[in-house]
Amino acid sequence: MTDYSDVLIVGSGVSGLSFALKVAQFSKVTLITKKKKADTATNLAQGGVAAVLSVEDTVDAHIADTLCSGDGLCNEEIVRIVTTEGPDRVRELMDLGVRFQKGKDGKGFDLGMEGGHSARRVAHAFDLTGKEIERALLEQIAVNPNIEVLENHLAIDLLIESKARGQERTNGDRCLGAYVLNRLTGEVETRIAGVTVLCTGGCGKVYLYTTNPDIATGDGVAMAYRAGAKVANLEFIQFHPTCFFNREAKNFLISEAVRGEGGILINQQGEPFMKKYDPRGDLATRDAVARGIDAEMKATGADCVFLDITHKPAAFLQERFPNIYQTCKQYGVDLTQKPIPVVPAAHYMCGGVLVDEWGRSSITNLMALGETACTGLHGANRLASNSLLEALVYAHNAAAKAILDHKSITFEPTPALPPWDDAGAIDSDEVIMVTHSWNAVRRLMWNYVGIVRSDKRLERAKRRIDMIQSEINEYYWDFKITPDLIELRNIATVGELIIRCATHRKESRGLHYNIAYPGKNDLRWKKDTVLRRPFVS
Ligand SMILES: Cc1cc2nc3c(=O)[nH]c(=O)nc-3n(C[C@H](O)[C@H](O)[C@H](O)COP(=O)(O)OP(=O)(O)OC[C@H]3O[C@@H](n4cnc5c(N)ncnc54)[C@H](O)[C@@H]3O)c2cc1C
Asked: How would you classify residue 268: left for phi > 0, otherwise alpha for psi between -120 and 50, otherwise beta?
């Protein structure tokens, strides 16, 4: 089937939902999401949204903290815009029904403290902030007559004008929508749109250990790259220092806020160790803490370290961290009584589809927002709780600009586009190949392109990913596509892009650490790593 809309949004996290609500005032929106509506990273966010919401804090301080964390690669103008507009966007969320935790006097906000921040500035709904935001936005979406939400619709590839017409690719290429797999019918739909917006979240599933939900397979970055858009800074993958170490508790995060409230990292002998690795100790930025834990685990041969917050009153911990308290307890760890076992895990993609200050990519009518986009805010390392903020500010500004650009966005007819061509493809008789390659990609990325990198490991990683990709490509075109195969192709593409960006950067900066170049080289490398697929048809 072929369908038309003014705006096609791919993804139902904070960025997709916020953008949809704003742009729907002027246009018909179709929002597709590959599983259930709330299967998003947004829904898992614990800490909250960073914004200057207290008289004791200043925008200048928020800017300074963001720049310091970004280690020389932030775009200062973008940092200024996002931090200045942040408070308005947080208040707007409250108007939409988000119940942030109020201050002690019942007014203002109860602001959390997190690593890398010089002031209390994180608005939260206890440790379930993302769930509360997702709930409120979905409720608004449900009653908006201009927004159609389609669950179980997985975008496979973008429709690019020149390719669709069988012409040479050009710099002025236009995006016309996407091919989308309807998981319930198995049909590939041709969805044509005036503007297509990638809000597909991050790529944590590229790595063996991650805090991310299963949907985080980097689809937006992979699709945009295949379509010829510029992508940037993919070497900067943030590893969250403290993921709950328990084989059954899949991907459960212990929020930064636990260290913010006084949690101390200790080794198996019960000794605090972070001061050995960074003078800021337990409140150093995430990259420094993740490397500290990695080094301590390698030095002691331990499987994990521990986060100790037992010195705080039990009642305070149960009230401040209800979700973390309950989940740890469910797996046999009462955090009021004993330290929590933790390990680092892939958490956040600082790079992504390169966009301007309005969320526009290098392809006409293709936008990217939220974690999928590389805006220049995070530079070489995201400051904690700046990502929900970035998604909100960008959704607001991108919608304003899109409306202005297109007056009221209405669909301009394009000539008939070819339907998805799977002639000759048969049902797979070797699903094991897909499972095996998923594991191979994730293990190789964890072992060779993780927290600490080296030239040798990166070279090895490139050779292996090339081989895996050529196997996937053969398989991809011979057999009928399935969600697992589409995602496998995407994690392999994003893995390749991370390896290429990491290999290119011959220094250590922010989240990228290569033992061959332990220092920063501002003269040569104080710039983004930008990749674009060569023009070959
Ligand atoms: C455990 C955890 C805790 C976090 N805590 C915080 C925090 O406290 N503060 C903070 O600022 N940030 C936090 N983050 C980061 C933040 O939650 C994310 O960066 C942010 O929510 C991303 O929002 P998004 O809209 O870009 O993507 P997401 O919320 O991840 O949504 C992506 C959407 O895209 C859909 N999708 C993906 N691919 C396709 C496809 N091919 N076709 C159709 N649909 C597709 C998915 O199904 C999903 O609906 C946390 C992240 C995690 C994992």
From this structure: alpha
Sheet holding 352-354, edge to edge: 373-374, 352-354, 231-232, 530-531
Ligand 1 center–CA 388 separation, angstroms: 9
Residue 9: beta bridge partners?
Answer: 31, 197
Q: How far apart, in whole angstroms, are the C-alpha atoms of residue 46 and residue 44?
A: 6
Q: Is the CB of 203 under 6 A from ligand 1?
A: no
Residue 519: CB atoms within 10 Å: 8
Q: Which residues are catalytic?
A: 286
**Tokens 């989308």, located at residue:** 180
CB contact set of 20 (below 8 Å; sequence gap of 6+): 7, 9, 29, 31, 141, 144, 147
What is the C-alpha to C-alpha distance for residues 531 and 326, in angstroms, rounded to an integer? 44
Whether pTM exceeds 0.85: yes
Using CA atoms, how far apart are residues 27 and 411, in angstroms rounded to an integer? 9
Residue with tokens 């590839």: 157
C-alpha torsion sign, points 88, 403, 17, 255: negative
Q: pLDDT tens across 227-272, in order?
A: 999 999 999 999 999 999 988 887 889 988 899 899 999 999 999 9
Give bridge partners of residue 154 from the DSSP assignment: 181
What is the C-alpha to C-alpha distance for residues 368 and 155, in angstroms, rounded to an integer?
A: 14
Would the CB of 196 count as within 6 Å of ligand 1?
no
CB contact at 8 A, 82 and 369: no
Whether the CB of 529 sits within 6 Å of ligand 1: no
pLDDT band at 537 (very low <50, low <70, confident <90, very high): very low
C-alpha span between 425 and 480 (Å, rounded): 5
Q: What is the spatial distance between Cα 121 and Cα 57, in angstroms, rounded to a whole number?
A: 8
